[in-house]
């Protein structure tokens, strides 16, 4: 697999005031549930990618499993894109969204 995966940043409008609601330079990495990866593997990927503790990584994994998605981290846009690519390279479903 050559090259970096295509990572799209999704901007969500703020429903309250009609502005885009984005915080300058910040984005969230969203982890999505999938039917292919074991829970322990997802936890280890989160720990390795973000430096999360085991309990935090497990909480994020469980939320993605039960709700379909979970915010894995909020950080600078470039870091978020790099971390999203790392998760995708590990076979996980993830995206970057503006906050």
Overall description:
By secondary structure, this protein is α+β, with helices and mostly antiparallel strands. It has a single domain (9-98), classed as Ribosomal Protein L30, Chain: A, CATH 3.30.1390. The chain is built from 3 helices and 4 strands. The protein has a 4-stranded mixed beta sheet. Helix 1 packs across helix 2. The protein is globular. The N and C termini lie far apart (30 Å).
CATH topology description: Ribosomal Protein L30, Chain: A
CATH level-4 homologous superfamily:
Ribosomal protein L7/L12, C-terminal domain/Adaptor protein ClpS
Class of secondary structure makeup: alpha+beta
**CATH architecture verdict:** 2-Layer Sandwich
The averaged pLDDT comes out at 86
Largest sheet: 4 strands, mixed
Order of helices and strands: EEHHEHE
How many helices does DSSP assign? 3
Distance between the ends: 30 Å
How are the strands of the biggest sheet laid out side by side? 1-4-2-3
- The residue ranges in which pLDDT falls below 50 over 5 or more consecutive positions are 13-19
- Number of DSSP-assigned strands: 4
% residues in beta strands:
15-25%
Dominant shape: globular
Q: Portion of residues in helices?
A: 25-40%
Rounded to the nearest angstrom, the radius of gyration is: 14 Å
Kindly give the count of domains.
Answer: 1
Question: In CATH's first tier, which class applies?
Answer: Alpha Beta
